[in-house]
């Protein structure tokens, strides 16, 4: 497989609606486990554009997190090609993948993974710092304001509720200014009401020129997506608008 | 149990390195703690094997008696049956020239004349052959082994004595009084600067010009003999038989060699115990910290068990067993470490105290003590976090990541404070503050090792500083100065003194009189050499730190150490008990009271000076026993030695710093033991740093993975860990330096006076020691995260970021 060249330069933080940001062609991922082979992904091809709010659905072991890791350059495919924001990261070196993650994608995790020693503002500043943005402090202030935590900047994570912590995590992801936001079960640790708030926040980001990809096993969440990609045993079994049509977030119940 | 073994196998590097840490502590504790016991055992067996005397009667310096007169004193004694063997000896000071193969070896020493078939103080032949009955009247000798070994002399050969006489020696031997060779009047090893030749009594009498004369009587007594009563009887009889002659008794336990080896072993043991406790303390504390953190990492598993309804007791069993396995492995490994340490220390002791019988076996009781501590503390280290873990509710226990964090520790201290370097640059200091308990225990572990390094290496520095100060004082203004000791005090205007001053190789001279004395103030007493000197000596004069040495009225200048031990100061009066010549072959001990007029700068307790005005009070006016000389222009100190050795009145010509050199050798045993201990401490520092880093990497796995997910390169993550380690290391080092200084002061102020009573050790910590402490506590600790670089590179980022751990 030819090695691609991924320059550690900043990608555009936003793109025109309809611009393809994520492109997967026949992507497969196999693991050697205990002498046997496990297929986590098989022949996955898809394109995701700017301003798409995509939910990846599937049961445990369906390959949705593997798919997220491929797009987020945390893992490399054993088959196929991955192009993200115009960069072919398929055979990128470790160094190139690190550079890509700094400037291409941002993550929101189920367990938030905030740095407990840093305040909310400092956690957000981390995202801007790593991406090499100008005046990370001002960026952090702005992002915290955008997620409704402008008055909680000096609080440590343990002084915030779960929903607030996840908002800080989203602000950290946004602070990087990267065009693609990847969220792995972002409401998994939250109660319904807080989960809805987080979904609203993520949904809103898709309309700022970013592509937002949310991985979840919760079918209810998929109802608010622009597009739902359903995986089963590592294969895409459905790809299109939510079944029964898109609904407003306020209509969700779980 | 199988589960626990699997735990141990999974973390085998960590388990092994914590166990090794414990093993070093336990093993060295046992080795250092066993020293006094095996030194005493070896000494007892050696003294017994060579039939050491129980009591020695020695006539005052320069006094002699007719052969048989001393033994005759026993016959008129009611308790004579208590004495099983009594033998007379002749002991005469002499200059010994053992120069060979172009190497100049000229030292003061003595001729010991004793029966060839002696039944008291027999000789242990180390090389060559023993003296035989046929040698009784022949001028042949045995050379003392420590001196011969120091200079690598052959098993047989020839030495030259004062006056140019030659003496053939046929072997190298050890005698009980010279298991440790001491310079007369001072308690320290002098194998390099003092030579003893054992000669058949009759030959010795002829050789030294004292035909038919003796000056010592050595006795062996029946077990249970009242030596005090024996001394009383002997005193009465000797006074009657030799009314003009002074004499002194020395019991076996007071012989310098025996005291140094046996009794001082207890004093030395205090020092060794401090080293032992420091090493064991640092090891067990570090093990406590590391095991505690390892178990803490299993908190979630315990929580899962609790959520599944498993009994807390059953849950506690597994981590407790892991702790027990580490402790047991540590103790088991401690045995070979102890044996190896013991062998290393035994080899040091063999160098300093070569004994005919040396048994350096590890003491089971001492090992058991160390093993008990090595077992109990790690178990406590396990029990504490287990106890904490089983007390929390299962739901809290299984919480992970940020939601598990209950507080930010002391991170609030820097809330709103911005340090340079952005959020990543601020992370290390915030992490240090966030987990104060962990930071403190890590910091204390580092501090414990640095304390050892500072205390032990500082002790070496202090020895060196003390010796340097002494050498500077001895050689001030005249680095080539030599001291020439005379066989007996002579009038200053005598031809012999003039001959020395007039020797072509001799430049300037300065005369003095040296009196082996005892200084007394109330109940306190101190042995010293009082040297009567010119107040305005042109060649050399002592540096005073207080008071003066007046020109006209009597004055005595003693060392600050002697002043402290006698509890006197300038202006107080002390009694000086010293010999006064009463005839050509006799002297008497008298007591003279002198005012303390000053304190000299020598670190040695036994150094004291009196002025010429005091000479009258001391009954030695106009007498000379020592002459300081410097070589004439174009002549070397060796030329002076060779020239003066030919003069019969000269018993010693040595560099002015010879006493310091002898002390240097006495301190050598500690130097070697300290070096072994410091090496072990450095090894422990490496193990602590490695373990601490490995555990840190476990604890920070999620944070590191988050940084990787955001594209922070491994190098930057490692750098952040290194900065965090640097902060902890610097704090630990600073604390360790302060604690180390405290321990050093305590050792010098409370232990050294017992261990080395003759030396007022100065407290000094050299730049090299600080550098070693910084290397141990800061550099090694800071670089340790590099050991986890490979592990960081191989982090499975997605797996680490997921909830399931």
Describe the protein.
The complex is a heterodimer of chains A (254) and B (805). Chain A contains 7 helices and 10 strands. With 254 residues, chain A is an alpha/beta fold. Chain A has a single domain, classed as 3-Layer(aba) Sandwich (Rossmann fold). Chain A has a 6-stranded mixed sheet, with helices on both faces. A 4-stranded antiparallel sheet of chain A has the order 2-1-4-5. In chain A, strand 7, helix 6 and strand 8 form a beta-alpha-beta unit. The radius of gyration of chain A is 18 Å and the shape is globular. Chain B is of the alpha+beta class. Chain B has 4 domains: 1-52 and 265-398, no CATH class; 53-254, no CATH class; 400-477 and 659-805, no CATH class; 479-655, no CATH class. Helix content of chain B is 51%, strand content 20%. In chain B, the strands form 3 sheets. Chain B has a 6-stranded mixed beta barrel. In chain B, helix 8 packs across helix 10 and helix 14 (436-475) runs antiparallel to helix 22 (767-783). Chain B is elongated, with a radius of gyration of 33 Å. Chain B starts with a helix and ends with a helix. The interface between A and B is large, with 44 and 39 residues.
CATH topology descriptor of chain A: Rossmann fold
Q: Which geometry of chain B do the CA atoms define?
A: elongated
Order of helices and strands of chain A: EEEHEEHEHHHEHEHEE
Radius of gyration of chain B: 33 Å
Rg of chain A from C-alpha positions? 18 Å
If classified by CATH, what would the architecture of chain A be? 3-Layer(aba) Sandwich
Tell me about the biggest sheet of chain B? Answer: 6 strands, mixed, barrel
The overall pLDDT average of chain B reads: 85
Number of strands of chain B: 22
Distance between the termini of chain A: 45 Å
What layout of secondary structure does this protein have?
The complex is a heterodimer of chains A (254) and B (805).
Chain A: E1 20-33, E2 36-49, E3 53-57, H1 64-71, E4 79-84, E5 87-88, H2 94-103, E6 105-108, H3 120-131, H4 136-146, H5 162-175, E7 180-184, H6 192-205, E8 211-216, H7 219-222, E9 227-232, E10 235-240
Parallel strand pairs in A: 3-8, 3-9, 6-7, 7-8
Antiparallel strand pairs in A: 1-2, 1-4, 4-5, 9-10
Chain B: H1 2-10, H2 12-49, E1 55-59, E2 65-66, H3 69-75, E3 83-97, E4 106-114, E5 124-128, E6 140-144, H4 145-151, E7 157-161, E8 166-174, E9 195-200, H5 201-207, E10 213-214, E11 216-221, H6 227-241, E12 247-251, H7 256-296, H8 299-307, H9 312-352, H10 364-391, H11 394-397, H12 401-404, H13 422-434, H14 436-475, E13 482-491, H15 495-502, E14 506-521, E15 524-533, E16 544-547, E17 556-559, H16 560-566, E18 573-583, E19 586-600, E20 607-611, H17 612-617, E21 623-631, H18 637-645, E22 650-655, H19 658-699, H20 701-709, H21 714-755, H22 767-783, H23 789-793, H24 797-801
Parallel strand pairs in B: 4-9, 6-8, 15-20, 17-19
Antiparallel strand pairs in B: 1-11, 1-12, 2-10, 3-4, 3-7, 3-11, 5-8, 6-9, 7-8, 13-21, 13-22, 14-15, 14-18, 14-21, 16-19, 17-20, 18-19
Helix pairs in contact in B: 1-9, 2-7, 2-9, 2-10, 2-19, 3-6, 7-10, 7-14, 7-19, 7-21, 8-10, 9-10, 9-19, 13-21, 14-19, 14-21, 14-22, 19-22, 21-22
């Amino acid at each position: 497989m030819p090695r691609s060249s991924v320059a550690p330069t900043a990608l555009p933080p936003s793109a025109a609606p309809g611009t393809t940001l994520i492109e997967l062609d026949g992507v497969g991922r196999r693991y050697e486990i205990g002498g046997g082979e496990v297929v986590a992904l098989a022949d996955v091809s898809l394109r995701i554009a700017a301003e798409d709010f995509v939910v990846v659905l599937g049961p445990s072991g369906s390959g949705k997190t593997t798919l997220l890791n491929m797009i987020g350059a945390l893992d490399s495919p054993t088959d196929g090609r991955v192009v993200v924001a115009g960069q072919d990261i398929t055979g990128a070196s470790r160094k190139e993948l690190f550079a890509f993650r700094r400037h291409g994608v941002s993550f929101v995790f189920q367990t938030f993974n905030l740095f407990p020693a840093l305040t909310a503002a400092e956690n957000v500043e981390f995202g801007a710092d790593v991406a090499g943005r100008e005046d990370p402090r001002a960026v952090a202030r702005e992002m915290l304001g955008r997620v409704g935590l402008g008055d909680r900047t000096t609080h440590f994570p343990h002084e915030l509720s779960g929903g607030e912590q996840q908002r800080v995590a989203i602000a950290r992801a946004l602070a990087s200014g990267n065009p693609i936001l990847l969220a792995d079960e972002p409401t998994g640790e939250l109660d319904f009401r807080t989960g809805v708030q987080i979904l609203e926040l993520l949904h809103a980001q898709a309309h700022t020129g970013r592509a937002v990809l949310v991985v979840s096993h919760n079918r209810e969440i998929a109802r608010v997506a622009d597009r739902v990609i359903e995986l089963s045993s590592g294969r895409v079994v459905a790809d299109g608008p939510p079944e029964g049509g898109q609904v407003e977030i306020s209509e969700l119940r779980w | 149990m199988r589960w626990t073994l699997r735990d141990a196998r999974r973390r085998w590097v960590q388990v092994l390195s914590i166990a090794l840490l414990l093993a070093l502590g336990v093993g060295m504790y046992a080795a250092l703690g066993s020293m006094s016991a095996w030194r005493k055992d070896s000494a007892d067996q050696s003294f017994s094997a060579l039939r050491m005397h129980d009591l020695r009667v020695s006539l005052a310096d320069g006094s002699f008696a007719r052969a048989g007169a001393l033994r005759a004193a026993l016959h008129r004694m009611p308790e004579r049956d208590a004495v099983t063997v009594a033998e007379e000896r002749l002991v005469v000071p002499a200059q010994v020239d053992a120069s060979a193969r172009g190497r100049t070896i000229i030292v003061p020493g003595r001729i010991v004349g004793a029966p060839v078939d002696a039944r008291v103080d027999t000789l242990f032949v180390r090389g060559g052959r023993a003296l035989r009955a046929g040698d009784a009247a022949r001028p042949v000798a045995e050379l003392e082994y420590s001196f011969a070994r120091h200079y690598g002399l052959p098993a047989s050969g020839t030495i030259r004595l004062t006056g140019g006489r030659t003496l053939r020696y046929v072997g190298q031997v050890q005698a009980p009084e010279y298991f440790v060779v001491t310079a007369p009047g001072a308690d320290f090893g002098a194998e390099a600067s003092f030579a003893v030749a054992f000669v058949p009594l009759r030959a010795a009498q002829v050789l030294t010009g004292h035909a038919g004369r003796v000056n010592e009587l050595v006795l062996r007594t029946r077990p249970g003999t009242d030596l005090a009563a024996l001394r009383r009887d002997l005193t009465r009889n000797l006074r009657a038989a030799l009314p003009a002659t002074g004499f002194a008794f020395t019991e076996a336990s007071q012989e310098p060699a025996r005291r140094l080896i046996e009794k001082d072993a207890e004093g030395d043991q205090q020092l060794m115990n401090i080293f032992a406790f420091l090493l064991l303390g640092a090891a067990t504390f570090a093990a406590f910290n590391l095991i505690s953190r390892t178990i803490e990492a299993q908190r979630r598993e315990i929580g899962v068990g609790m959520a599944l309804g498993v009994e807390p007791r059953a849950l506690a069993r597994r981590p407790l067993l892991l702790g027990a396995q580490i402790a047991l492995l540590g103790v088991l490994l401690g045995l070979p470490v102890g044996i190896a340490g013991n062998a290393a220390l035994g080899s040091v002791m063999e160098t300093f105290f070569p004994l005919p019988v040396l048994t350096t076996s590890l003491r089971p009781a001492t090992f058991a003590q160390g093993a008990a501590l090595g077992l109990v503390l790690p178990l406590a280290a396990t029990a504490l976090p287990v106890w904490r873990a089983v007390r929390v509710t299962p739901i809290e226990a299984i919480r992970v990541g940020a939601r598990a964090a209950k507080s930010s520790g002391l991170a609030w201290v820097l809330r709103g404070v911005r340090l340079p370097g952005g959020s990543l640059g601020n992370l290390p200091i915030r992490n240090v503050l966030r987990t104060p308990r962990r930071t403190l225990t890590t910091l204390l572990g580092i501090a414990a090792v640095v304390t050892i390094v500072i205390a032990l290496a500082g002790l070496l520095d202090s020895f060196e500083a003390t010796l340097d100060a002494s050498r500077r004082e001895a050689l001030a203004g005249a680095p080539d100065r030599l001291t020439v000791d005379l066989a007996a005090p002579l009038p200053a205007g005598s031809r012999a003194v003039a001959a020395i001053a007039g020797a072509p190789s001799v430049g300037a001279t300065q005369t003095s009189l040296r009196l082996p004395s005892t200084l007394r103030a109330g109940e306190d007493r101190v042995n010293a050499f009082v040297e009567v000197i010119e107040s305005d000596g042109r060649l050399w004069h002592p540096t005073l730190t207080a008071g003066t040495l007046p020109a006209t009225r009597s004055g005595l200048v003693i060392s600050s150490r002697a002043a402290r031990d006698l509890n006197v100061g300038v202006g107080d009066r002390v009694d000086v008990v010293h010999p006064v010549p009463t005839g050509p072959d006799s002297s008497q001990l008298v007591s003279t009271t002198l005012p303390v007029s000053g304190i000299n700068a020598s670190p040695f307790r036994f150094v004291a000076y009196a002025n010429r005005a005091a000479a009258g009070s001391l009954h030695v006016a106009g007498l000379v026993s020592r002459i300081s000389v410097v070589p004439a222009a174009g002549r070397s100190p060796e030329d002076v030695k060779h020239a003066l050795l030919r003069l019969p009145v000269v018993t010693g010509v040595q560099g002015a710093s010879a006493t310091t050199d002898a002390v240097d050798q006495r301190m050598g045993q500690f130097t070697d033991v300290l070096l072994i201990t410091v090496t072990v401490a450095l090894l422990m520092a490496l193990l602590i740093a490695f373990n601490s880093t490995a555990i840190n990497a476990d604890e920070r796995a999620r944070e590191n993975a988050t940084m990787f997910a955001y594209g922070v390169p491994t190098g930057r993550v490692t750098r952040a860990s290194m900065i965090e380690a640097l902060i902890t290391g610097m704090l630990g080092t600073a604390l360790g330096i302060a604690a180390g200084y405290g321990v050093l002061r305590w050792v010098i102020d409370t232990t050294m006076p017992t261990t080395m009573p003759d030396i007022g050790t100065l407290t000094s910590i050299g730049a090299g020691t600080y550098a070693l402490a910084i290397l141990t506590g800061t550099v090694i600790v800071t670089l340790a995260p590099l050991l986890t670089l490979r592990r960081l590179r191989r982090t499975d980022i997605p797996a680490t970021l997921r909830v399931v751990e």
